[in-house]
From TrEMBL:
One of its GO terms (molecular function) is glycosyltransferase activity. InterPro entries: DPM1-like (IPR039528), Glyco_trans_2-like (IPR001173), GtrA_DPMS_TM (IPR007267), Nucleotide-diphossugar_trans (IPR029044). It is an enzyme of class 2 (transferase). SUPFAM superfamilies: Nucleotide-diphospho-sugar transferases. The lineage of its organism: Bacteria, Pseudomonadati, Acidobacteriota, Terriglobia, Terriglobales. This is Glycosyltransferase. Residues 261-377 form the GtrA/DPMS transmembrane domain. The keyword Repressor does not apply. The chain crosses the membrane at residues 258-280, 292-309, 321-347, 353-375. Its main location: membrane. Pfam families: Glycos_transf_2 (PF00535), GtrA_DPMS_TM (PF04138). Residues 26-189 form the Glycosyltransferase 2-like domain. Keywords: Glycosyltransferase, Membrane, Transferase, Transmembrane, Transmembrane helix. It comes from Granulicella cerasi.
Length: 394
């Protein structure tokens, strides 16, 4: 491949031999990490000297030009490869695609934000080969590890996540929330079809998907402070983690989206009952009027929470938010009507107002979920521009 002059991009790099198997592949999921790409490649070249290796950046179409920088590097450095995804996002799914894109038996997953210490990768690889492990985890919580400059609040959240994760992973790993680990691709292939594939905690997903005890080891490292770019941690990170836990804890018996819809519905139910109480006791309106008003108030609250959480991957914005709310009201009208009729019948039979009101909510919830999924937040058919595009440079 003919690339830029050496004065533009530095000296040529020797490509991994086509006849010698790769010792290691490094998979780096990226989104807006343009300021870190060059330094990360340089650091990897230093610590992996003497090994046959490659690095695969899986970029979710970063608006800051991350993919362009990687592409230019791959034109000059055959060790660097790019998987450029269009219309798709997600750290876990990016890691899965990166692992599937390499022929190396051993694959390191690490972030592109320079917070993971690449210097321990050779130690992880040696431990993997000598011990025959499935996974070797870079840990912040065991001997030689540190959370670095994490705030106390962030550390407490991490510890809580550790306890929850270990309950579904069925193994006592010190840092299941780690995004820095080495995996044997033979183990990966044994679990890949059972992976949830969503969210950010791909290690938890792999551990919880194994049908047998996972053979693992750990290597401590100090978590570094991000120097460039912004953290991707936000409310969606917690939501995605919740989805993963539900998926693994119930063995997919309860759809994670329905679980989220049910939690939102529980919040709506509390709002509904409060509204009915206020209208009955403070405004002295009839039960039917109170039930109708409370139904639409709770329905509106549920719409915005579901848009933020349950269907965050299809989140409506701008004008579509307004039309979505209208379609949600219309689509759920039958459920609301059944809610009111059923609740009134129970009230006439002598049931207390709060039990009658709650029974009406339960009746309409399954209908509302189905209608919402089909109409309000319907999944659009994939367009050519939304299909994964893979640009692999050798």
């Amino acid at each position: 491949m003919t690339g830029p002059s050496s004065s533009s991009w530095g000296p040529l790099h020797e490509a991994p031999s086509e006849t010698t198997p790769l010792d290691l592949a490094v998979v780096v999921p990226t989104y807006n990490e343009s300021a870190n790409v060059l330094e990360l490649i340089q650091r990897l070249e230093k610590v992996l000297a003497g090994l046959h290796w490659e690095v695969i950046f899986v970029d979710d179409d970063s608006p800051d030009g991350t993919a362009d920088i990687v592409r230019k590097q791959s034109a000059r450095n055959p060790r660097v490869r790019l998987v450029h995804r269009i219309g798709r996002r997600g750290l876990s799914s990016a890691c899965i695609e990166g692992i599937l894109a390499t022929s190396s038996r051993y694959v390191v997953i690490m972030d592109g934000d320079m917070q993971h210490d690449e210097a321990i990768v050779p130690q992880m690889l040696t431990k993997m080969r000598d011990g025959g492990f499935d996974i070797v985890v870079g840990t912040r919580n065991a001997e030689g590890g540190s959370m670095g400059e994490f705030s106390k609040g962030r550390v407490r959240i991490s510890r809580l996540g550790q306890r929850v994760s270990n309950s579904i992973c069925r193994c006592d790993i010190s840092d299941p929330m780690s995004g820095f680990f080495l995996v044997d691709r033979r183990f990966f292939r044994s679990v890949v079809r059972s992976l949830h594939g969503g969210g950010f905690k791909i290690l938890v997903d792999m551990l919880a998907s194994s049908s047998r005890p996972v053979r693992f080891a750990e290597v401590g490292y100090t978590f570094r402070t991000r120097r460039h770019g912004k953290s991707k941690l936000d409310v969606n990170t917690a939501v995605e983690y919740f989805f993963l836990i539900i998926d693994k804890a119930t063995h997919r018996l309860i759809p994670a989206r329905f679980a989220a819809f049910s939690l939102v519905g529980a919040a709506g139910a509390a709002t509904h009952l409060l509204c009915v109480w206020v209208m009955l006791h403070l405004f002295h309106v009839s039960f039917v009027k109170a039930q109708i008003a409370a139904t639409y108030i709770a329905m509106t609250e549920n719409f915005f929470l579901n848009n933020l959480i349950t269907w965050r991957d299809r989140s409506l914005r701008g004008l579509r938010l307004v039309t979505g709310l209208l379609s949600f009201w219309i689509a759920c009208s039958f459920g609301a009507w059944a809610n009111v009729i059923f609740a009134r019948a129970l009230l006439n039979e002598g049931m207390s107002w709060y039990f009658a009101s709650l029974a009406g909510i339960v009746l309409s919830s399954v209908w509302n979920y189905s209608i919402s999924n089909l109409f309000t937040w319907q999944k659009k058919p994939a367009r050519m521009t939304e299909i994964n595009m893979v640009d692999e440079a050798y």
